[in-house]
């Protein structure tokens, strides 16, 4: 399985292409739809779905362009289903940049259940990692995890945004992510990749816990 990171938008959100054999998944296409399409064109694989770890604007800005171009479904959290059409909750309406437009995205085609999915050639589990936002989820594959804005290299997601909760986020990471094998790579929504072991040992939010 191949994981390709594409940095998108002004705040450099990480969109991931997860490729296996003839199929690929698009995860969190935050902006720059043409750039994502350009990267997909280089691959000999067909997009089968768009997956959203959560629905803040910097993770959803290119959803409709890609959905319409590839004719593929979008999967999102039922707890944030309305946020795709709500610029206040997806934060585009609260952004202080003068050039930020309200982002409104068509409803998700499917709402996640907390279970294992097989889409195309790829199988993964959806696990709840709320705390950055109430509906945040992570995607656990056979030998890596995509953590959205829950766990970062040396940090965690913000909890001062609507529905954020620090205690909930720390518990999410400890129960859903730190129970994964230490060697698992972690691919976050911003910044560089890390591993479960590295974050247990060095992340300041968990100092002395492991």
Automatic annotation (TrEMBL):
Q: In the record, which residues are listed under signal peptide?
A: none
Q: List required co-factors.
A: Zn(2+)
Q: Name one GO molecular function term.
A: hydrolase activity
Report the superkingdom from the record: Bacteria
A Pfam family reported for this protein in Swiss-Prot or TrEMBL = Lactamase_B
Q: Which residues form the Metallo-beta-lactamase domain?
A: 12-190
**What keywords are annotated for this sequence in UniProt?**
Hydrolase, Metal-binding, Zinc
Query: What SMART domains does the database record attribute to this sequence?
Result: Lactamase_B
This protein is called: Metallo-beta-lactamase
* Source organism: Enterococcus canintestini
